[in-house]
Write a structure and sequence with these properties.
This protein has 468 residues and is α+β, with helices and mostly antiparallel strands. The protein has 9 helices and 19 strands.
Length: 468
């Protein structure tokens, strides 16, 4: 009788363990459904959701840090055609994206329209010096005019340059180079980002995700159009993805993330690089691949971005993007900082360039469950092109077309400690607790089931031997 009771108890224990394990197994899809339901509800862009509160307001401060390439041998370049020698000067830091979105309008087709106001406030505590620091840099007006007018009018430009006492290089303050100055040659305001303050980017129209959460944040139109007008090609003119501040939830490592940047007049993709811990939160780091700005020789998809056969060495030049088609013809070339992933000729034409993946790559840290970007560093370099001229004195000794680096910027933002703690409390902790309960129930249940089953077999075997 005792042996029978023991076997019955072990069977009951095994059944109990199996039930506990089954309960743990049931909680996995049930828990996943609860998590997905909560995330989907809070990720929709509509008043009252977490996503809307973060999306509509200014949120975390975004900084733009600028490093200028200060020319140390301007006269040698002009008089003898020497390679420019530059030293990096910076950072000069500004707070940007501190203004909330404006003209937010919800549309019937699951979209919301808005304007993104632009402004910059100098942050002395994060800068190497004041905005009045002097930089020796390329003359934006001379180089711009050289590129815009035909060679037959170079004599006219030569006269204008001499009359205005202009040259290939100039000395300007940080503030002037960034935000504008009255140029003596063009008799108008010239600056790398002029005008900027009190201007707007957009209007944008993005999907709210209410009808389809997989489309939340995706850009429907920019400036009223579903595609760009810069590249005269359906592929290059596509507006893909979001604005990179967030992505649809439940991000998968194997799938690239697409985003559109008005700064570079095109859409790009970022690929999974690694998983990192950001203030106790597991995030996926995505970075731009070298193929993003590769030459059409290595990446045929970039063929439609190549507009000038002469300055791009028959479309074999890698690492730069000619923005003249979206910059009113101005010879502006965008690259990664220090020509990262660029052709060797770019590094050889200017002395003082030293690319580093660690310091110069662009990356996004995305929390995979929500799709929120919690940390990013968008590192872009602004360059201008100048070339030889038989008429213009300051260009007579220039031997070939040169893409000259003027400044590179790091636009960056990271969630603060308070937001990180709130994020962990409201989302990460409940998910971890639910996963822990699931794993404990499943583990304990399986353990009880296996132990009871083994014990039952042992008892039964002894009983059978005893009978025999």
């Amino acid at each position: 009788m005792g042996c029978c009771n023991r076997r019955c108890g072990l069977i009951a224990g095994a059944v109990f363990g199996a039930l506990v394990a089954i309960l743990g197994g049931i909680l996995i899809p049930l828990g996943d459904n609860i998590i997905q339901g909560t995330v989907k509800k809070e990720a929709i862009i509509e008043p009252g959701t977490t996503a809307y509160e973060n999306w509509s307001a200014a949120g975390t401060k975004v900084y733009r840090q600028f490093w200028f390439f200060d020319v140390t041998n301007p006269q040698e370049v002009i008089q003898h055609g020497a390679k420019p020698v530059v030293t990096e000067k910076g950072p000069y830091t500004y707070i940007t994206r501190y203004l909330a979105k404006e003209n937010i309008t919800f549309n019937p087709n699951d979209t919301v329209s808005f304007l993104l106001p632009q402004g910059a406030i100098f942050e002395p505590s994060m800068s190497v010096g004041p905005e009045e620091d002097i930089v020796s840099s390329l003359n934006l007006a001379v180089v711009g005019a050289y590129s815009l007018i035909p060679e037959s009018l170079h004599l006219v430009l030569e006269t204008m340059i001499k009359t205005s006492n202009s040259s290939l290089f100039q000395y300007r303050t940080v503030r002037e180079l960034l935000w504008g100055y009255r140029d003596p040659l063009l008799k108008e305001t010239v600056g790398l980002f002029a005008p900027y303050n009190d201007t707007f980017d957009g209007p944008y129209k993005v999907f709210t995700g209410k009808d389809d959460i997989s489309k939340v944040g995706l850009i429907d139109t920019w400036r009223g159009a579903e595609s760009l007008k810069f590249w005269n090609d359906p592929y290059c003119d596509m507006i893909n993805g979001t604005d990179a501040t967030s992505f649809p939830p439940f991000v998968e490592k194997k799938k690239p993330l697409y985003f559109f940047s008005s700064d570079i007049c095109r859409s790009v993709s970022a690929s999974y690089e690694k998983t990192v811990n950001l203030k106790g939160i597991e995030v996926y780091r995505y970075s731009l691949l070298p193929s993003t700005l590769a030459s059409p020789v290595d990446n045929p998809d970039n063929k439609c971005f190549c507009k000038n056969m002469k300055t791009t060495k028959n479309c074999t030049l890698a690492g730069v993007l000619d923005l003249s088609s979206c910059q009113d013809g101005r010879p502006i070339y965008i690259s990664l900082a220090h020509f990262l992933h660029g052709s060797q000729s770019l590094l050889e034409d200017v002395v003082g360039i030293s690319p580093s993946v660690e310091h110069h790559e662009t990356f996004l840290d995305v929390e995979p469950t929500t799709g929120f970007t919690l940390n990013f560093a968008k590192r872009i370099q602004v360059n201008m092109m100048y070339g030889p001229s038989k008429v213009i004195t300051v260009l007579k000794n220039v031997k070939d077309y040169t893409i000259f680096p003027i400044v590179w910027m790091n636009e960056t933002a990271m969630l603060d400690d308070e937001t990180a703690d709130l994020f962990k409390k409201e989302l990460i902790s409940p998910i971890q607790m639910l996963e822990t309960i699931q794993n404990v129930l499943l583990g304990v249940g399986v353990a009880i089931f296996v132990l009871c089953l083994i014990s039952y077999c042992v008892v039964k075997r002894r009983h059978d031997k005893h009978i025999a």
